[in-house]
User: Fold this.
Amino acid sequence: MNTVNAMELSGVEYMASRKRTPNPALDRLLEQARWTRTQLAQQVNRLGRQAGLDLTYDRTAVAHWIAGTPPKPQVRPLILEALSARLGRPVTHAEAGLEPAVSVKGSQPVDTVEELIDLGRADMDPSRRGILAASLFSAALPVPLFQQKARAASDPVTPGKATTRIGTSQVASVRSMTTRIADILDEFGAGHARPMAAAFLVNTVGPWLRAQASEQVKRDMLAAASDLTYLTGWMAMYEKAHGLGQTYYVKALDLANEAGDHVTYCRTLRGMSLQASNLGHGRMSLELADSAAEAAPSAGPRLVAFLRGQQAHAASMVGDRRQAHARLHEAETALLKADNRRDAIGGYDQTAYLFHVSHVLMEEGDLEGSIKAMKQSIRVQPPQERQGRVHAYAVLAQRQLRGGYLDAACQSWGRFLDEYEHVSSVRGDDHFVTMRKALAPYAKARAVKELAGRVREVAAAKA
Assistant:
């Protein structure tokens, strides 16, 4: 065995090899690359020379890696680079069954792009999606502050030849794809849109984030990726996969920080506030909403309304009626100054404003006012926002039933069914279950009997 390999099996690493766990992931990647173990070793040696390392690995060393002996920390990035170049896509530590190198202080360096690719790849896999969805939301997560990371004038040179260089057209593609996914979300639900977003993040955006580009294009791509990651987190949150949604949100914050993008950063914080409010964490929701507003000091009127509306809802949750109504007034005033452009991401309109009015009034115990505002919200809702109507009609029906308006509630549930039939949404599924339970005590009522046939039809279609 050559000197480098012998060193690798000495001391602590030799002790580890006695308790080693096989690494089938690396073996699978070799099969995908159609490489022999000798070929991988040769490429690692070649990259090592470019990185200033004198490596003389052979197939035996690769066999040890696959058998469970971990490669040296400085060699692991070379293995990933070799496989990434061969496969034409980023290969992460997790995919290769390797642990990231540990720094001198004992903490692992954070690679946001690698973590995002791993997260998206797991989200694409139906067998792992259930595990991800069950991950826990952290109510103890500190409220992040915008701290733009200093970027070097040029990124360090990666060993090996760069195979991709991106420009403004690739950034525009990510922006356009994000808009289209948002449109699919509105019309057909997050159940259809989120897997598309995760796949696009892994297969296209991840490689572009690793590609060569000018400094401006790098920042623009990071910002575009942050927007898409925020949208993916929003969809996970909407589908009640709250731990997963929070993880996507944190990744979106990291990308926005690196891009120096205040707007996407504060928009993501606002999404995190909405998530906290959905889970009943009023104080956390208000802190996140306030932090979002502070992170966007030069926001345009539509974004101001977007932020103030969520601040109003959060303030009402903690019983601050004065602040809640002041924020609603600010949201309404800002909305009057906004143009008529429809933003796919972070858009805010009269529908959303009235939805917040309804929530604030409900928190104050004004059921009648809340119902009236919800009706107004639905009345001005854009026709393409089918998923939004699924939720809005369900909420309206529940509040009408609470107020004793059974006939009106059944009419709203009927409109809910009309929209729900075409949408794939966990939240919609939950509303459907809630409807059946809520109406069960009134099974003999005329309005409920008339609705029962439609309920059975939709249940059969969804089965």
